[in-house]
Specification:
This protein has 220 residues and is of the alpha+beta class. The chain contains 4 helices and 4 strands; from the N terminus they run αββββααα. Strand 1 and strand 2 form a beta hairpin.
Amino acid sequence: MTMGNRVWTGVWVTMVASIVAGAWAQTPPTPVSGVYTCIDGKGRKLTADRPIPECTDREQKVLNPSGTVKTKVGPSLTAQERADQEVKEKREIEERSRTVDERRRDRALLIRYPNKTVHDQERQEAVVQIGVVIQAAQRRLDELAQQRIAIDEEMEFYKKDPNKAPAYVRRQQEENANSQVVQRRFIGEQENEIKRVNARFDDELVRLRQLWTTMTPAAR
């Protein structure tokens, strides 16, 4: 065999293999063995030993010889219908997952807060802890205010020309002003945190009231 013949033979084998593979990929799956039955669009009950063409748009049951349902074959879908079906199934999975997560959170809430007394107590403790932090910041702010009085008294000697004041006094004045700004900002953030804590407990209480209502007397 010449080199040209060998090349041509290789190309021919490759083409044939590709054609066979493509035909195999396009071959529909082998039907499930059994008795197919369905109700077509005209209300007729049809039966056959293979998938029923008149029912490609609806579900078909595959029966065992005993007459019991062996499996079910869904309707043949277009590419768009399959895409829509996949989207629908994805949404259903996400919804089931969301429901499971919600039930898990509900159980955790009930375990943590079996009644309103416990819930109120934890709310109060959370607010008190933040209040302690605010009080400490307020004390620091008062200290800074007292320091500022002393600095201002020293600056009084240079009120006609503040630029003649010693550098360390001007630096103390600037640092004191910045520190007061920081403390006031921190206090404001903590006051907002109290609002967020109360809002969270308010939201929890709405859900807990529903859960407590559904609890049996023995479980309360």
